[in-house]
Amino acid sequence: MRLVVTLAFLIFCLAAILYKESLVKLFSDGAEVKILQDQYQKHDIGLFFIQNSFFDYKGSPVSNIAFNKFDQSQDVIIHFWASWCAPCINEIPELLNFKNKFNNNILFITISLDDENEQIEKFLKSFKEFNNEDFIKIWDKSKLTMKKFNIDRLPMTVFIKGSEVRVVRGVVDWKALIF
After folding, report:
1. What is the pTM of this model?
2. Residue 55 lies in a domain
3. Which of 64, 119, 167, 175 is 20 to 30 A removed from 30 (C-alpha atoms)?
């Protein structure tokens, strides 16, 4: 009986490890990956952006027209970052390469959680490509998105492919990501 219980436990552990590896294999070590269809639907996330007022990195209003693409068949990546976050800074070059590879096929929304515009401006001097028109850029000074998406660490990225919503809390391995 003890042998059966031990074998059952080992099989359970192996299944859990294999399942976790299949979820995490595209992301860096230590990143937490969750599939959130129950908590978030693509349409609801799109409505959240359309129904609220947001500002770009310079403090100018972001047009709701930018979010109208959300419900089309296009895939969406929402990336949360801050200029004071070292892991955020380290992953930006890979994120930019990933964006260049899939330029028109993915709607990219980048959301800065910085408190001051000056912090963002300094950051953008180092990463000018991050400020181009390929990204919908939001400066969330009010932390509205932080509350909506339960952001407890940075970087954080929301991947929406079809109806599947995945949240990665931690650094994404953009080089290995297949989206």
Report:
1. 0.78
2. yes
3. 119
